[in-house]
Fold this sequence. Notes:
Layout (H helix, E strand, L loop, with lengths): L18 H7 L10 H8 L4 H11 L2 H5 L4 H29 L6 H5 L2 H9 L7 E2 L2 H14 L17 H25 L11 H24 L11 H11 L6 H23 L10 H16 L1 H4 L20 H33 L5 H17 L6 E2 L1 H9 L6 H17 L8 H10 L2 H4 L4 H8 L1 H17 L1 H21 L3 E5 L17 E5 L9 H12 L3 H21 L18 H4 L31 E5 L8 H16 L3 E5 L3 H9 L12 E2 L2 H11 L1 H5 L9 E5 L14
Amino acid sequence: MTMRPREQQYKVDRPLYSVDSFEEEHEKVYRQRKSLLDHVRQYFTCDARRVKNTALSLLPIIGWIRIYQIKEWLLSDIVSGVSTGLVAVLQGLAYCLLASLPPWYGLFSAFFPVVAYFFLGTSRHISVGPFPVLCLMIGSVVTRLVPDEGPPMNITGFEGLSRDDQRVLVASSASFMVGLMQLGMGLLQVGFVVRYLSDTLVSGFTTAAAVHILVSQLKFVLGLVVPGISGPLALVYTLEKIFVQITSTNICDLVTSLIIMVAVFVVKEINDRYKAKLPVPIPIEVIMTVVACGVSYGFDFKTRFKVDVVGHIPQGYETPMAPDIDIFQETAMEAFPMAIVGFAVAFSVAKVYSVKHDYTIDGNQELIAFGVSNIFGASFKSFAASTALSRSAVQESTGGKTQVAGLLSAIIVMIVTLAIGFLLEPLPRSVLGAVVLVNLKGMLMQVTEVPYLWRRDKPDCVVWLVTCIASIFLGLDLGLAVGLGIELITVVFRAQLYVLCVTLSNNDSVVPRAGINEPEGVKIFRIPSPIFFANIEFFKTKLTEAIGFSPLRILRKRNKALRSIRKLLKNGDMEWTTVSFWFLMSRDNKEDLDLPVNLKDLPIKIDWNRELPANISVPRVELHSLVLDFAAVSFLDISALKGLKTMLKELVRVDVEVYIVACDTYILEKLHACSFFDDEVRPSIFYLTLHDAMLAILEKHPEASEKSSHLEKVSLAVHLHFSHSQTPGPETKF
Length: 734
């Protein structure tokens, strides 16, 4: 025989409180609110402490360099920096193909932004540099202004430049604009904008970007000459051109790519499976690149098999270049989504590592850091930087402790650029394309989230699907805008068409139970959302359906009945002992019928729930108390206040007592400020908790307590799910 564990209980012994009685007994403490002048004065106050905090905020390196543990951290940072640097070299060359630029410019993007972020960034573990989605977005701008076929756009700065130089100018100018936008948002403290990009939206967007990247790299894997295409349906047109030339596939490129992809994929799986046992991940991408480069040089792939190789890589860095103002005007619309996407991805990765390693990051400072990094890099002909997930994973998993590892990775890239870049000249571009494709696995596998989202949250699933499909067919910039629009629409629908609850409870908990009788004449209604202009009518409709009658209709019926009774009494056609009679109903004024029921000139009080004389029919109202649970209502606007007051007046006029519980103090203050209360709607209807309101009801209507003996022990929640496409059924009762 097993003994049930003793249930834990607690007992609260205090008076029954309404809001008014609680405020009478306890003094309210008001928080001192700062005026606009106080905020301005504080913002421009300058003292030693303010200067110190500002310096630490703008230069986070000061904060962590003071606590840098050389003996414990330096060796780990060196190992991590070298490993990350080798990966950064390869990814810089590979991702540069996505931007439709000569490969060696990717090395610039893996160096200059990293140096700037070393001083300004708050994350200690992300690896700054080329990000494939951002590279693809830059590539679409580049091919739009400087297409592969046909003349470039008429821009003054293009005069006297080769096609490659024109493209570099476009990419660096667009990246400069991205940096300016990020820096401006950081200085204006608007880092919160990234909150509007939900995880679902980012997942759908990056999956679509992975599809674009996959299609864009097919021409390198197959060894085909396919011009870059931008704009809506660019992916469809690109696939069409690829399939038209499919018979011209370079077999050497295809075989090389397949070997690289299989080898890299297998070793990456080994790295993931045995990462706990391996001291550092096997740098398979670097190994295969070196092997492919040696084989290509030894067998002269370029001459014998017509393989397209990286070619000449200039040694050293080029002189700084000013951005072109005309290109600013042409690329401003594309630059904004680039700024948002680049920051959102980097900030998301940074948050993951900051939580894992227990330190804080500042979103506004991250915007400033990436803004300065992109401005600095664009001046030296690099393109917009963010962070690549795989590269950041290498930096963290190989033991990186701080951005010293990032700086060392930049030094490795610099060594390749200045000294040994020529060794990569025979590297086939198909190898770079294969490396890019293998690294798409994580983004492409996000499609497996769709069944889970459909089962758990259909609106989120719709956001994912619409964002992904729109980004695939309309392009990444338009697709992101469509995704944001759909996301905001779902937020509006969630707020308007929320799930309403009719609850039965004698305490503050709501526990679904079956087989419990509802207290007669009591209805508890929970509103799980703010009430505002967009959902006030929905709220009134669902509240009416929940209580089972329209208060306004009942009020009009009662006033019509009173007019008939007064008319018959005046004509002497009725006495109170009369059982039944016929009378003629006249046309009534609806405005008069909406007024409260006036019984002053009648010799008795009418019980509207009993049978009335003379066949006068008025619907009965079994409800005597309605409790509105405002615990989840965070705000009400003016439209909601008007609608709520109208509804409360209608309920009071049909003798339904209204109790509002758990209302926020801010909302109560707003109600007083907006003259919400009058002779019918009084402040005394507000109670501290649901428990207080229920005790007040049972004290006033003891018959409800007698008919519901289980009230002291249980709570019932009957969820009524409504949507704009469903017709609610009858009220559910247990």
